[in-house]
Amino acid sequence: MTNTQPEEESKSSILDDLPKKVLDESYYHGFLPREDLPCLLEQVGDFIIRITQLKPRDPCELILSLRVSDQNSPSAIKTSQLIRPIARQSWEFLHENIILKDMLGEGQFGEVRAGEAVIDGKKVPVAVKIAKTIKDKKNIQQAKEKIKEMMHEARLMRYFDHENVVKIHGVAVCREPLMIIIEMVNGGCLSDVLGSRKGNVDEDEKIENMSLGSARGLEYIHAQRIIHRDIAARNVLYTENRVAKISDFGMSRHGNFYEMSRGNRKVPLKWTAPESMVTYQYTPKTDVFSFSILLWEIFSDGEEPYKGMTSIEVKRMISCGERLKKPEGCPDVMFQIMGKCWEQNPDNRYSMSEVVKQIEDIIEHAYSEESETHSRLISDTHSAEKISSKDDADDLNEPSRSFISQTKRKRRKHHRRKKRHKKSRIHKKSAEIINERKKAKSRHRHMKSSHNVL
Question: Is 152:34 a contact under the CB 8 Å cutoff?
C-alpha cells in the first residue's frame, strides 16, 4: 500500500501558505479548471473557491469564481452578491479517500496505478491516472498541457454510461498530484490480449466480443457527439469476462468536426484517415476509418499494421487508396466491412450504427442457421426413437441394443456436426450475405437506369 502523497511534496507543499480554514471548506475545489465551472455555477450568485498558480515559481493564489448576470459589465461584477456556495460534487474525490497500490504504467508526465477509492462509503477497486508534479522549467509547459489534457479527458468521460466504454469515477484536484479515478479493467488492452493468446482466440469471440463490443462502444461515443481520434487495439480494454471497452479519451473532442491547431500535429499515422493526413480535420467518419484498422488488428491476432514500413511509405500507400491485405482466416464478410470502413471517400464509409447493424446481422444469420440445423438433428433423433419403439414392441422392458447404439451414434454425430458447424458458421454465411448485397446493388442500378429512361 502506497501513500497518495509524493515524497517530495510531503516536505514542502505549495499549499502550505494558503489558509487551512479555506482548504477545509466544502466549496473549496482545488485545481478545478475553469472549463468545469459552467456545470457547477448555474444560477446568479453561485460561487466556489479554487486555486491557481500563475507562474511556475510563484505561490498559489485563491480565486473566487462567481456566476454574475453579465460578465462583460464591470458594475455587475462589483455589485454581485455571494448567494450560494457550491459544494464539491460526487465526482470530486479527496486524496485521503484514495489508496494507491501497484504501478500499472508510467510515462514522462504521469503514471497509472491500481488502487482503491471510497465510493458511497465502500472501497472500490479503481485505476488511478496521476499527473506528475514537474518542477523542471524546460518541461513545465508540457506538463501543464498534459494536465489540461487529463482534465479534458475526465470532463468528456463524466457522463458516459455504456458497457463498452470505460467508466470514470471522478477526479482528485484539491491538491497535487492531480488524479483521475477510472474503472479498473482486469484483463489488459486488446492488442496485448490478442498477442498473448495468439492463435487461441476463436472466430466467434473475435466477432461477437471484440469487434461488436468495440463497435457498440464507438457508436455510443458518436451518439454523444464526441470524436475519439485515437481508435486502435491499444486503446480498447478487454475484461476477463470478454467485454471490450473503449478507453483513452485524451485526444477526443466534443462535436462532429474538429481541426487541429498548427502547433502540435502528432497523429497515430497508421490509424489516421487519408483526409486527416492532409487537412488535419476530424469527423466521426475518420473514427470509422480507424475502426477498420482496429478490425484488421483483431483478425491479425494483434499484428502491427503496415509492419516494417516507414511513415512516408504508409502515408503514400493510404493516400493512393491502397489498403492492408486480408488477414489469414478472416471471414470474407468481416473483410467486406473493413472495406466499407476504409473507403477513400468518407461519404462512402459506413457510420458506426451501420457497422453495428452489419455485425449483428452476421451473428444473427449464423445463429439462425445453427438453430435450424440443431432442430433438424433433434427431429431426426426423435424419428429414430419412434421407429425403434415400434420394432421393439415385443419387448418393452428391455430396449434393443441396436436402438441404444443407434441413438448414441446419432447423438455423437450430432455433437460432432454441431461443433464443426459452430467453428465455421461465419464462413458459411459470408458468401451468401455478399451475394445478397450484390443482388441488392444490381436491383438498385436497374431501378436507377429505368428511372433515367422514363
Answer: no
